[in-house]
Amino acid sequence: MPNESFLKAFQEIKKLAADFRANSAYYLSNAYQEQQARQDFIDKFFTALGWDVNHNTQKNPYAQEVKVEIGLAVGAGRKRADYAFYLAPNFRDVRFYAEAKKPVGLIASDVNYFQTIRYGWNSQTPLAILTDFEEFHVLDCRYTPDKDTAIQRALLKFHYSDYENEKKFSEIYHLFSREAVGNNAIENFVETLPRHRGKGSAQLSLFPGGYKSIDELFLDELDGLRMALAKNFKNSNPKLDGWELTEITQRALDRLVFMRFLEDKLIEPEDLVSRFGTSGSAWQDFSAASRKLDKTYNGTIFKKHAILDEESFKVSDDHFADICEGFSNLNSPYDFNTIPIHILGSIYERFLGKIITVSDKRAKVEDKPEVKKAGGVFYTPEFIVRYIVENTIGKLIEGKTPEEIANMRFADIACGSGSFLLGAYDYLLRYHTKYYNDYPKKAKDPDCVRKDGALYLSLHKKKEILLNNIYGVDISLQAVEVAQLSLYLKLLEDETTGATAGAKKETVLPPLNKNILCGNSLVGPDFYEGVQETMDFDGKKDEERKINVFDWDAGFPDVMRNGGFDAVIGNPPYVRQEMLGEFKGYFERKYKVFHGTADLYTYFFERGVSLLNERGLFSIIVANKWMRANYGEPLRKWLKEHTIHEIVDFGDLPVFQNVTTYPCIITLSKKLTTRGTIRVCKVENLEFKDLSGYVKKSSFKVNMASLKNEGWSLTDEKSENLLNKIKSKGVPLVEYVQGKIYRGVLTGLNEAFVIDDITRKRIVKEDPKSKEVIKPFALGRDIKRYEPIENNTFLIFLPKGFTKLKSKNSANPWKWVSTTYPAIAKHLSPFEKEGEKRCDQGDYWWELRACDYYEEFEKPKIVYPNICKKPEFTYENIHCYTNQKCFIIPTKDIYLLGLLNSSLMNYFFQQALPKLRGDFFEPSYVYMKDFPVLCAGESDLRNKNLQSTIVSLVSTLLELHKQLSTTTTDGDRARITQRIASADRRIDEIIYDLYGLTEEEKKIVEESFSKKSS
Hints:
By secondary structure, the protein is an alpha+beta fold. The chain has 4 domains: 4-206, tt1808, chain A (Alpha-Beta Complex), CATH 3.90.1570; 214-374; 382-571, no CATH class; 731-893, no CATH class. A 9-stranded mixed β-sheet has the order 13-12-9-14-15-17-16-18-19, with helices on both faces. Strands 1-2-3-4-5-6 form a 6-stranded mixed β-sheet. The protein has a 4-stranded antiparallel β-sheet with strand order 21-30-27-28, with no helix packed on it. The chain is globular and about 100 Å long. Mean pLDDT is 83; it is low at 71-77, 197-209, 532-539, 748-772, 799-814 and 827-851.
């Protein structure tokens, strides 16, 4: 049964269709223009679908769900989409576009389709509408826009007569009404469409552009343009070094991007890039345009460069003309009016992960060493930026006037391409706009302009906010330039033709050379103190560029003189400790949080907080490993001295696209304290619409006093109480086993003497009296819960005292092994090639590193892997050795085995162990040693009987798993599996009883891992 809103919309649009039919001769004539069609029919059509097209209720320009463009007479093919639809409270991301035409002529043309698809694809919206009211076409925007195939991209077509058909109209309503869009109708519809299957799919073959998102394709485009420009510049100017080439290539590219932005925003009424070369030299045209734009816009982008803008600088003009032609608005699929600024930032962030290197006359682009080591660039998703900005800057400015906010300073001290600076600036613009619309009497010239019944911030006011409030630092000059570019684009985002008209007395772009600076945020001028005698930097420009010290007092004198920043936010770089090199000594002298193996991001905590004023807030997104890793202990101690407001832990969720680092958000202030509580949220999935709402609903309090320096588990009060109750029972595991918990043997860098499949039989040893023995050998992946160890891997045990032999001392390593250790060679001979490959992979040959517990491997023992998803303990009595990926507990105590494999231990895993990627845990000694083992006293007959029952059940489980490993029929497998599950459950119930858990506590235990496994 149709609901009331549907029926109302149907009746209203049915009437519009009747009106159109009654006067169709006029409406379909050349006399009837697009603007009239929009006012008479299209505006009313979308209003009937529930959208506030005329802004009757949504007055704040930054909080309007429909943005309507005024028709402008511009160059051929250059215009903005007529309607952009958003959904509160997210007024940043377009849900879909609608392009309007006058109802005369053929609407289904390749030009119209290409233009409309371009809007949707550039803003990452899968569908767009093309309509003249007479017809209503729904177009597929998932594929790269291509003029030749655009006409094939219609998904749905409606005629105005279909508006009078309830079933047909229902298709439109239940896809594009305000109500439907709010219920994810577009996303659900797109899910039903055929998916791309790769390069060879029939669907992709229809569209030569292929299925590539705007960020993927534009990143490829930038990479290609950078390479083309770099080769052009280097070939024409062979003396350029890598630093110079990187800088001027970036500058030229940024100018081209900014020019296209000005064109597509219609801020510059005439085409720029497409005209370069039409009157002579493309490079001269580009240079002349740069000089002209510099006078109007100022800023770093067009500022005269000492190399790029010199007359002596040479360029292959034909090659540069080709670059401009391909990047022009006539030939490229990009529309810089509809690409969200934060998407451009994400593209640039990855782009900045590469540098240009030169040799002789050649230039090439390659990953920066630290990026290569880290596995990629960590660009922050926009929802994370928004959350951090709202919960720092948003809280700090709440209720304040524009005059009060003008005295506040917000910074990102590792700003990269400027994503957090953009988020902060966007928030401030929205706040100010709302303030003036709520209090219109406060709006004065030259702060605001009135348009369409609402107050908008003037360009003058937006520049003032940018200069007053936004600050950033980055070690890369290219990053600083891109951050400035991003902020300039944001400044001009809502401007249009005539934006420069008011810039007679002042340039359009404010100078940001005092706001966004280049330098190493972590390293001050004192880096050189005491090192002048040992480090000669005279003439070593590359070393100084790399260190790039930054003096905060000199860089931001007014800010530091007034106590510091009101907020420091961001996503510090992920640089592994091996890459820190010459900085480690300085960090050790300078930072309380120093640890020899700490990653770079740890130092940004201390630096960022030190830059705050007394009321300031610090919030960053970083890898969550610091909460549990050994290197995080100094940081954890330091943090406990401060006021931590909140930690949002994403566990092992893939927040960063294509990068396997799992983050958390932490917010704190400078105020020192050792008491209080922290608001904690453990995010279980990324399916929320609004992170703030999710955190508010799912957070809990953690007492700071409960956090141990050894590692933070961040459990809620109920879980913390239960964990403490469990820990109060029995004795720590390390005490119970008398300290005998060992890691498996370390077999050297290349595990050169671990041989796979020597024979298909287990060889315990070759000769009991020989010093050379061959042992069964298990890897971490071989260890499974209660299962017998099955492997075909063996360990060649060399005599104690054999350390290393440089391979260069032996022309034939294989001959040396066979001569010196004939017993080994006998078993290696069938695998001679493999033996050579394994034995000669580096500068050294390595043996088992000497240790004092080899004899423990000869005893019965409990074995478990150092990385697992759940408890994976098993019992072993065949004298099997293990590699360093395992731990062993030499014991015959299978009561302990049952306890370690229980649900109670699984709960301990969930609450107390480090979380790794892919739902894995790391049950290393430092955490496992404290697990409480309950052992009944001599007089405690009841508990002794319960323990005896566990022993009997564990013996049964070990036997059942042996049977399961050899069974050949599905029926037997099902029967044995059922018996295993029953015995497991019985052990869990007994252990709950032993530890005195209530029914509510049992439920907490069960839910902690059942939720995760589901």
